[in-house]
Specification:
Layout (H helix, E strand, L loop, with lengths): L5 H12 L3 H13 L3 H25 L6 H9 L3 H29 L8 H22 L1 H4 L2 H19 L16 H10 L9 H4 L7 H30 L2 H6 L4 H5 L1 H40 L18 H17 L2 H25 L1 H4 L3 H25 L1 H41 L2
Helix pairs in contact: 1-8, 1-11, 2-3, 2-9, 3-9, 3-11, 3-16, 3-18, 4-5, 4-16, 5-6, 5-14, 5-15, 5-16, 5-19, 6-14, 6-15, 8-11, 8-14, 9-18, 14-15, 16-18, 16-19, 18-19
């Protein structure tokens, strides 16, 4: 039974995007784009809205909880590419959880007078382990209140925008304070992970009422609303706070942006909203990644241990444990900038493949070839720009990202050929034995 209306579907998209990304990466965008931070968010939004077109067309035709996994399988079939992308997507959500946890720690530290490495890593660990426990006990604990949380954090962002509008110094955003065009584009690509999340609408396609109309509307409306929200927040942040002050508080820049208009109360309000948003986003992403692992494992593309569910929660038990363990390792060993780069690069790669998938299936999904070619090229060029710039400024992030790709391909080659192949052959032989007289 379809139970989600248009507003509910839009809420899923907005909630997925305004989860914790804007709280985490705003300072990163300012450090690269300077006065053109709003332009950087707009450029990233252009890639997102074009990719949303592919998702909208694919979701209407292939309504499945598998979402991205299903689309790539339909376009490329069961081969090394689709198998590798499945694992790459699973790894990408680990990076997203790590990003949210790091942002949680950065805003959480503002409530302590004494700060240090142990406090930072302690908050990261708590931010991941506590939601994991909630998932194992009762996954619906935060899920039931997700609509309220989405409304609360969007309301706080709107409050910051409205209250800070009269304090904006437009001179700080004049072209003389802009970075080079390449740096502006790179800033947009580094913070692209803030737009990751609208694809979650595809995973709920089977539950959305009147999907032929509501799915496209939900994708476009959620992305457009979030683009407007991010651009306005960028204007308020850059226009209200001197850049030197923003750079000192880069990891919690949004809280600093609320101070000129709302004072210390505004700072505390935004910091509290960041904690709530990142915590709920971690909870939802752990659940989603465990479900994703379950779906992929059910198709035989990941170990069957990921299909083991808890008796009370109904959540894939080992999926939650693996997600928690690897997220803890990533979040406690890589800094915020590197996590943002790796997360954005991972989703730009996956979205490039989604756009290409839509092009391959364009006749089946009744999509316009020109838009799909444009979206594929823009996503690919965005990924290349990010990688080229990052290689000269932060080669470690590129190495880690490339390692993710290599691990995904090698896993599919080894597991797909030797383990899954043997399981299939054994199953086929058993079927033949049963059929033989």
């Amino acid at each position: 039974m379809r139970s989600i209306g248009l507003l509910g579907a839009i809420s899923i998209g907005i909630g997925g995007m305004v989860g914790g990304g804007i709280f985490a990466v705003l300072g990163e965008a300012v450090s690269l784009a300077h006065g053109a931070t709003a332009v950087a968010f707009g450029i990233a939004g252009l890639v997102a809205i074009l990719t949303a077109y592919s998702y909208a067309k694919l979701s209407v035709t292939y309504q499945s909880e598998g979402g991205t996994v299903t689309f790539i399988d339909k376009a490329f079939g069961d081969n090394i590419l689709s198998g590798s992308v499945n694992l790459m997507l699973w790894l990408s959500y680990l990076v997203t959880i790590s990003l949210y946890a790091t942002a949680f720690a950065s805003y959480g530290e503002t409530f302590f007078t004494q700060k240090g490495v142990w406090l930072h890593h302690g908050l990261i660990t708590v931010a991941i382990i506590l939601p994991a426990i909630i998932n194992l006990v009762s996954a619906s604990f935060v899920g039931k209140s997700e609509t309220i949380i989405v409304a609360l954090k969007v309301s706080i962002l709107v409050l910051v925008i409205v209250a800070g509008a009269s304090y904006v110094d437009t001179e700080r955003m004049s072209p003389v304070h802009w970075s080079s065009p390449l740096s502006i584009v790179t800033a947009g690509m580094i913070i692209f992970v803030a737009y990751e999340g609208f694809e979650l609408i595809a995973n709920s396609a089977e539950d959305i009422k009147n999907p032929n109309k509501n799915l496209p509307r939900a994708f476009y409306a959620s992305v457009i609303i979030v683009i407007a929200l991010y651009v306005l927040i960028s204007i308020i942040t850059v226009g209200n706070v001197p850049e030197a002050q923003l750079m000192q508080a880069k990891d919690y820049a949004l809280a600093i942006a609320a101070k000129p208009s709302l004072g210390h109360v505004g700072f505390v309000l935004v910091a509290s909203a960041a904690l709530l948003s990142t915590f709920s986003a971690i909870n939802a992403t752990i659940y989603g990644n465990a479900r994703l692992g379950y779906i992929i494992a059910k198709d035989g593309k990941l170990p069957h241990s990921l299909m083991i569910k808890g008796k009370k929660s109904g959540v894939p038990f080992r999926g939650v444990l693996y997600t928690t363990l690897f997220s803890l390792i990533i979040a406690n060993s890589i800094n915020l900038t590197e996590i943002a780069i790796i997360g954005s690069a991972s989703f730009l790669l996956i979205f490039t493949l989604i756009n290409i998938s839509a092009y391959r299936l364009r006749k089946t999904i009744a999509a316009k070839a020109f838009i799909l070619v444009l979206s594929s090229l823009l996503a690919f060029l965005a990924l290349c720009t990010l990688m080229l710039h990052t290689y000269s400024s932060n080669p470690k992030a590129v190495i880690i990202f490339m390692s993710f790709i290599i691990i995904s391909v090698l896993f599919e080659l080894i597991y797909g050929r030797y383990v899954r192949g043997q399981l299939f052959n054994r199953k086929y032989k058993n079927i033949k034995k049963k059929k033989s007289p």
